[in-house]
Structure formats: C-alpha cells, structure tokens
Amino acid sequence: MSKVEILQIGPYPAWDEGPLNQTFAMHRYFEASDKAQFLAECGAGIRGIATRGEMGADRALIDALPALEIISVYGVGYDAVDLEAARERGIRVTNTPDVLTKDVADLGVAMMLAQARDVVGAEAWVKSGNWAGRGLYDLKSRVHEKRAGILGMGRIGYEVAKRLAAFDMKIAYGDLEPREFASDWEFIADPIALAQASDFLFVTLAASEATRHIVGKEVVEALGPQGMLINISRASNVDENALLDALEAGRLGSAALDVFEGEPEINPRFLSLDNVLLQPHHASGTVETRKAMGALVYDNLVAHFEGRSLPSPVI
Ligand code: 8YV
Q: Does 315 fall in a domain?
C-alpha cells in the first residue's frame, strides 16, 4: 500500500524525521524555492500537515490541499493555524501540550533571574578583564520578596508561579476569571492593575485575536521604570512598538523576551538596547522535551490514519 502523503512545513530533529519518513511520504515544503509550484505538483495528494507552533498553517495553505484531513502541530500554541478554515472542512488539529510546560516555565524564570542579576553583562565584565582592570561590577536588584505578576494562569503560568513561590516572591495573576487551583495567589483581572502590582510581569497567555496586544502602552508603563516584562508566550500578545518605545525612553526598566514579531528576523531596535535579554524562541528547546513533542506529532498522525482517537486533539 502506498504511504500517506504529509506536507512538512518546517524541519525537525533527525530523531523525528526518521520515523516520519519511514511511515509517511513526507513532502518538504520548507525546502521548496517555488512554494506555489511545489503545491501545484503535490498538493492534491496531501492528507496531513506536520507543522511547528510558530509556522502553523494559514487559510491559503489549507485551501490549496483538497484532500487534507489533519494538521499536527509541534508546539502547544496553535494560534498560527487557521482553526476556522480547518473547522469548515472538518480537518482535525492536534498540538503538543503538557510535555513542554515545565521547560517553558524554567526558561521564563531563568530569564528573570539572568536579567535581574545581569548575568550576561557580569560575565562579559569577567571575560573582558574589567574585573581585574576596573574593579567590582555594578550592584543589581534582588528578586526574592519582589512582586511577580503572571498574565495567563494556564498550565505554563501555574508552573511559573510554583517556581516563583519557591523564591519567596509575592505572586498575583490575571486571567478571564479566578482559578481554583491558584487560590494561594491574588487574582487581579485587569492587566494594567496587575502590572501596577508587579515588579516582574510574565506573559504566559495562549495567543488569539482576543489577546492581541493585551500588553500595550498602558500595561508596559504601569510596570514602570523599575519593572521587567518577561514574554514566553507569543509576540502578538505584546504591542512590540509600545514595548520598544518604553524600553528606549526608560519608561520600562527591562525586558526578557523569547518571542518576536516576524521572528527569526527581529526588529533591529532590539539589538541596540542594553536593557533586554533576547532568546531565539527557545523555551521548549531541551532534547527531552523536543523528543516528546516530536513523538506526539507522529503519534497524532498515526492515530488519525489508523482510525484511532487522537492523543492530543485541539479540534
Ligand atoms: C515551538 C512553541 O513550537 O509550543 C509552542 O507553542 O512555540 C514552541 O514550542 C518550538 O519552537 C518548535 O517550533
């Protein structure tokens, strides 16, 4: 029997590509220089898409694949998949929740600590010989006993809060409504009020049209000249221009960011700032977690084409 044809939107590590190639006929969309021509040649036979969180699948792509049955996302965020277009055609969508939650929380907390204590700048001070040549490094701001706000008390927000509690931080969170499992922490519904009550504001919201630019000028300025914004969700949750304006003018103290509009190309204004810590969308980037994510992408595809229930369906 011929193999089921899958459109692969981005690269995966070799340990994922092996099983995918063995089971399916994989069409490597990301390697095609003429994407329209590529789809004209193989689009009619494609029954599944294997994509990545930040790449998704838009309506134009879905429309170009008349036999499409399933979109399997390597990532928890499916905001880049046009769910409406998928729903209209009864196309299933899956993601990789849970397996990456703790890694994402770990990186968020690591970024907060690194930025607050200026670990990167302090290391440069040692390596450049400034420690011996010019003396002690500038003093930095402590983290414990400071106020942390968590915008989005989902799985990742909860893991961030647990970690911050161990640092003796005072924790508040924002969401659509109070969460029973988060009753140890103060609920502040309004993002501006949450920012006012925070020294460190973590953005851990699942992105959607409704959350676009939820962190805008007012939120950023409520956080203030001593405050830090940490974004481990999606760039669209933050108004990047408002953020850059505030960072440049000192109306916001600093930012630690794992996600950017138009990534991997990022706004060059970020590069000339010395009050930012920038990461390459790497929060789920551990070998263990990426292996678990890849296995889920594969398992969802296999389950679908064997007619079994999906391990982690979105729709
Ligand atoms: C990326 C992510 O998918 O889980 C998500 O939503 O954004 C990440 O895990 C990862 O970079 C792989 O593309």
A: no
